[in-house]
Specification:
The complex is a heterodimer. By secondary structure, chain A is of the alpha/beta class. Chain A is 25% helix and 34% strand. Chain A has 2 domains: 246 residues, P-loop containing nucleotide triphosphate hydrolases (Rossmann fold, 3-Layer(aba) Sandwich); 126 residues, abc- transporter (atp binding component) like domain (Coagulation Factor XIII, Chain A, domain 1), CATH 2.70.50. Chain A has a 6-stranded mixed β-sheet, sandwiched between helices. By secondary structure, chain B is an all-alpha fold. Chain B has one domain. Chain B is built from 12 helices and no strands. The interface between A and B is medium-sized, with 31 and 26 residues.
Chain lengths: 403, 266
Amino acid sequence: MSEPKIVFDHVWKKFRRGERYDSLRDLIPAAAARMVGRGKSESAALGEREFWAVQDVSFEVMEGRALGVIGPNGAGKSTTLKLLTKVLRPTRGEFRVKGRIGALIEIAAGFHPDLTGRENIFLQGTIMGMKHREIREKVDEIIAFAGVESFVDSPVKRYSSGMNARLGFSIAAHLDPDVLIIDEVLSVGDAAFQERCIRRMLEFKQRGVALVFVSHNLQAISQLCDQALFLKGATQAIGQPAEVIRRYLETAMVREQTDSGSPIDVVEARLLDSITGEPVSVVEPGRRLTLRARYMVREAVEGINLTLVCYRSTDMLTVYDGNFRDEETHINQVAPGNEIEIDLDLSANLTRGQYHLKLEVFHNPTQTRLSSLSPAAMLTVEENRTYDGIADLAVNPVVHTRD
Amino acid sequence: MATLAAEVREMVEEQIRFRSLLVQMTKRDLLLRYKQTVMGFAWAVFMPLIQTGIFATVISRVSNFDPGIPYPLFAFTGVLAWNFFAISIRFASISLSGNTALVSKVYFPREIFPLSQVLVCFVDSLVAGLVVIGLMVWYGVMPGVQVILLPLIFLVHILWTAAASFVLAAANLFFRDVKYIVEGLLTVAMFSTTALYPSSEFSGAVGLIMRLNPISAVIDAYRNALFYNTPVLTQGFLLSALAGMFFFGLSWLIFHRAEHMFAERV
């Protein structure tokens, strides 16, 4: 059993809102106490205007493993990474990182706009801990990976933001670290580049690098990570990515409901097992389900479309979008002032993953949205088959021997 | 005591580990300083020349003392030595607050920011030092054997400059007032050194202040080594060297102890 590359042991980090010192009179004694290394420099208690940005967070990352950190904005994700890279010092708790750390906290943080791409490669590479000789050997590869060959001798201030980001990631991708720490790099760059980033990170893992990866791209987290940490100051959940992502989405998905008062409102919805009639949230592919939705009809309106949209929650991919008109729903025949319930029967023809459903009411003649409810329901699909992706193509390998 | 020794060892080891970064950052700043300028390094020579020209004109009108060598040579050397100290500090004191992205996002020893500024100015000064050689040839002033101590003078000069740079760079993160105070002081402070006139011209308190100014001792040492061939290792210079070592160590330690707060303060 090898030792973990990263141990984060009950780490706390305190920040202060606003300015730290109001006057010299406050600063000098405090600073003096700190310099001498005495004084209760970092006490456990919260002072006025202080708050815990990171609260009692612990985790371990083994060689060749990846930890994905997720959470809302301001949850302490970046702070955690900065603690790992020693940019910040924990208020309490300890951590150990074994071996060379490569960090990509903000792509291109070390870039200087007036220097050329090539000059910046040397600068940023050195900042990231590469030796000069090492950079010289890899510089062509870095340029090619970033795809900036024709601009490499222009100052980076003339680069597009995508080029900047690609060059930044490319330098990090050519590091040879034992531990790689990455903050939200997949939000930049086009689809092809993102794909390349993910592949590169998988290669790092295979080489035995321990990865810590912050991203809002939950799909990438579930693809890449062996373990996920849901952070919101304190640890909300840690463990299997699928489970942690589900927990995160449950709290992150705030039900958005349009103001009531429109002619027709979608009031409430529940997802039920079609056969037993019991509420469900975790199903296997192909299960028959019923989305039971309640609508309030205040005025009789013609030309209503009820829509049901299904998203994959991890990347907001639309997997289904369907409309139902008056002829199917008969909602135009409901007397004003009444509520009706409509059962939308459906099959969970989905692959493994997290999904949520959205209900909307459209007025077709005026093309206006009268009401919406999202998420109307959340759904986890579990299966044991080995494929990923969004559809089951029912592929069947047939072998023909040729001789 | 044992913990202090360990701390100092850690500080030094870190610098050794990141030495190629110091070189890269110095290169970066040298590149940047003269990028998109037409004259490039010529600026490093040009500025002290103009200053010397002005001072030489003014001072030769208001006083007449005999420095024993042509006054332009005397003054240019003084101005150059002072400028290295002053310009280094001016750039170093804003070197942390001006690199927000790096300080708050990437870890490496923060000493590199002020130190690279000092090194950049040192390179600049060496370039401008070619003028000193030119003037010596022109006036026929030959250096004697004392010139071999020049590297030692460089070292003491750098120690003092780095000492001031460390403290001011860190202080400026906590109080942005520092850079204005530095600006103000530096414009006046040159006249309390022997950059433009020998301290022997002054008696009483003024003369004492000039003699106590550690940079005066450095400037005098340059002249002794290059022009007068009188002993460099005077009592004044040795005192300045010892004090320089002490303050360099102290201010590096202060810088190092404050370092962990930089990312939150920048």
